[in-house]
Amino acid sequence: METAIRDFVLGLGVDDVGFLAVSDYHSPASPPIESLFPGARSLIVLAFRELDTCESPSPSIAMNGRMDLMEFSRSCNYKLARFLAQKFNAKAMTVPVSYPMDLGDVQGSAGEVSLRHAAVGAGLGTFGRHNIVIHPQFGTRVCFTAILTDLDLKTTANQLGDLCIHCDLCVKNCPANALETPGQTQVMLCLKKSQPYGLGPSVLFWSKFGVGSAEEQKTMLRSEQYRRMYQNQFIGFQYYCFNCMKSCPVGK
Ligand code: SF4
Ligand code: SF4
């Protein structure tokens, strides 16, 4: 069964795929898979190589490459879920690269399924000093999606060893100094740099707007900050920093 699924996935143009039994999935911050999909037995993890657009100094070009990847990966997730239902009479649920995610009080901004832990568990990479995953072929330039299914699939053994060469370039090139402590990303520091027009800045903007005079409000709505927030909100999230990804020399 794993071979048929692998062949189907690679035939879609996905770069790599791994399997993980739910009992082998361990993520410290995410809820149990059972709470998302009662009866789930395994995860199929798909790897997508990030485009070279992540190197562009232009945030819109860099983000556009990520959006291309997200759109393609969403289509692959859908096709794979349909394939599992049609070929194996399986139940399948899809997990996206990034959003939508549960932004409620309990979960905060952590994904409901940790795709990093799923990818490492499914033999697709190892954690680097930047706390994201290094794939043996694509290095850090890779994103993951997953399919949760009630099929019994055997976990792909992870025999990769340590792929990080401990050059610390990711730490040095982080504009937020968010990677100073090994094994820990200071998420709030990262978000200020990587999503400067995201939720926090939006709350501040609208709080100020609410108490502003009519003239101040007009000025705020004509500002660059508002225009950037506007685009950010209809894109979903717009990332302005890809430095961890583009600094890492592994797999380049
Ligand atoms: S995305 Fe940017 S700011 Fe966030 S940890 Fe990586 S390098 Fe630092
Ligand atoms: S940039 Fe260097 S230290 Fe950071 S994850 Fe890559 S290899 Fe490891």
List the helices and strands and how they pair.
Blueprint: H1 2-11, E1 16-21, H2 33-36, E2 42-49, H3 59-88, E3 92-95, H4 115-121, E4 126-127, E5 133-134, E6 142-149, H5 169-172, H6 187-194, H7 199-211, H8 214-221, H9 224-235, H10 243-247
The mean pLDDT is 95
Radius of gyration: 20 Å
Percent helix range? 40-55%
- State the major sheet: 4 strands, antiparallel
Trace the largest sheet across and list its strands: 1-2-6-3
- List the bound ligands: iron/sulfur cluster
User: What is the overall number of helices?
Assistant: 10
The helix/strand order is: HEHEHEHEEEHHHHHH
Work out the strand percent. Answer: 5-15%
Class from secondary-structure proportions: alpha+beta
Number of strands: 6
What distance separates the N and C termini? Answer: 33 Å
The coarse silhouette is globular
What's the gist of this structure?
The chain is α+β, with helices and mostly antiparallel strands. It has ten helices and six strands.
Task: Outline the structure in words.
The protein is of the alpha+beta class and 252 residues long. The chain has two domains: 2-164, no CATH class; 171-235, no CATH class. 40% of the residues lie in helices and 12% in strands. It has ten helices and six strands; from the N terminus they run αβαβαβαβββαααααα. It has helices at residues 2-11, 33-36, 59-88, 115-121, 169-172, 187-194, 199-211, 214-221, 224-235, 243-247; strands spanning 16-21, 42-49, 92-95, 126-127, 133-134, 142-149. The strands form two sheets. A four-stranded antiparallel sheet has the order 1-2-6-3, with helices on both faces. It has a two-stranded antiparallel ribbon with strand order 4-5. A hairpin with a 5-residue loop joins strand 4 (126-127) and strand 5 (133-134). The two termini are 33 Å apart. 33% of the residues are buried. One iron/sulfur cluster is lined by residues 128-130, 164-170, 247-248, 250. The site of one iron/sulfur cluster (SF4) has 13 residues, from helix 5.
